Amino acid sequence: MTVLAFLVAIVVLVAVHELGHFSVARLCGVKVIRFSVGFGPRLWGWTSSTSGTEFIVGMLPFGGYVKMLDEREAPVDIHERGKAFNTQPLRSKAAIVLAGPVANLILAVALYSCVNWSGIEMAQAIVGKPPQDSVLAAAGFTGGERIQRAGFEGEALEDVVSFEGFRWWLARSTIGHHNLQVEFTLPQKQSPKAALLQLSGVDASTADAKLFQKIGVVAPFSQARLGSVLPNGAAAQAQLRAGDVVLRVDQADIVDSMQLYELIRASANVGVPREQTWLIERGGVRTTLLVSPKLEQDKGKPIGRIGAMVAAPPAMATVRYGLTDGLGQAFARTWETSALTLKVMGQIVIGEASLSNVSGPIAIAGYAGQSAAMGFTQFLLFLALMSVSLGVLNLLPVPILDGGLLMYYLWEALSGKPVSQLWTERLQKLGLVVLLMMMSVAVFNDVTRLFR
Question: Active-site residue numbers?
């Protein structure tokens, strides 16, 4: 599943990117010699009888290219000189180069729109019990609050329709150093309350699960109700059954499943599991049971486990938009994701964000497999996110990328003369070194994550 999903994602994203270059090149009258998805030996392909363009699929799917007629690469017949890329006006060359990243951004809008129009089942924006010393705990949240609206401090509030939508607000606020205004309702109550989450000072150098742990939003609210119980586990030995609702563990009232999960794990933090007193509700009747979690090791640390699922599924809702709203939401999500990606890249360059945020092909393959396993809609969302990332990455002003070529054309427009061949070669080598360094960091991070 992982390998297939990764290959499909790479082929689609690369093909769309190169199709952008190809389409605008043809519109500008440039002759395209070869359109390739993948590098290396040819696996399959054909040659167009009308344009003469060779369409091929290479053995290595990690990229692609559009080879155009160009006097700098090979002699060009005098009759075809007007079809060569290098003879085109500056605006045409810039448009051809820009078309690849723009095609990826258009693909992202299309994918987000399809998801918005078809609808997706998402967890409702109900927060679980926040960890101690978290931002939500400091704001008075205890778990079970339903987030209705959110917005940056001093700005208008917008509706929050899902838990992931709330997390998106939190991520943008933290990375952008904004405090977040939220409007929420308490369980069993309809009157809304307001709170200001102090996120501007949260260290967002590493955008991972630990960041949301600091904020206090780890998972959507789910009731502490037992699911399947293993025959020989601690839960079965304590006479616990599927469907039991846990109300209290020792002196702690249980708000949600995440709190129960942490208490079970923490029962063995001294190396020896300690017995816990559980108050449960079964069929409307409350019962007290003694539970002795079993000692297990998790990455070298002692934890307690009971051999049972301890969470009920979170409350879900179908999120669906109409034609206009769905398209508007897709444009907004693509724009916000692009801006956030650029912001994080900028913070990495100036040292405000950690290099550990950079992911490579191994991590991307894992995400592809996970999203595909969750369903077609989740895979479309993954493709949209990767398409935005590919489009933004290619717009960076790094020689060898599309953004680097656009910088050459900007120089030519301002100075009236193209970048010299000598400086072009020097900058290409520099760009290659930068790209290899980025890939090295990404692969190193991927391998490091595998051994955590």
Answer: 18
Amino acid identity at 137: A
Residue 405 φ/ψ, nearest 5 degrees:
-65, -40
Distance, in Å, from the CA atom of 116 to the CA atom of 173, rounded to the nearest integer, reads: 23
Q: What is the DSSP string of 31-44?
A: PEEEEEEEEEEEEE
Count of C-beta atoms within a 10 Å radius of residue 17: 27
CA distance 185 to 192: 5
Residue type (1 letter), 16: V
Write the pLDDT tens digit of every residue in 202-247. Answer: 887 766 667 888 999 988 999 999 999 999 899 999 999 999 999 9
Closest CA to 15 of 403, 390, 438: 390
Contact 54, 22 (CB under 8 A): no
- The predicted-structure confidence for 273-301, as pLDDT tens digits, reads as follows 889 999 999 999 999 999 999 998 887 78
Angle value at C-alpha 215, between 267 and 187, nearest 5 degrees: 80
Q: Which of 310, 313, 315 is nearest to 244 (CA)?
A: 310
Closest CA to 174 of 145, 133, 134, 125: 134
Q: In this structure, are residues 154 and 185 in contact, taking their beta carbons and an 8 Å threshold? A: no
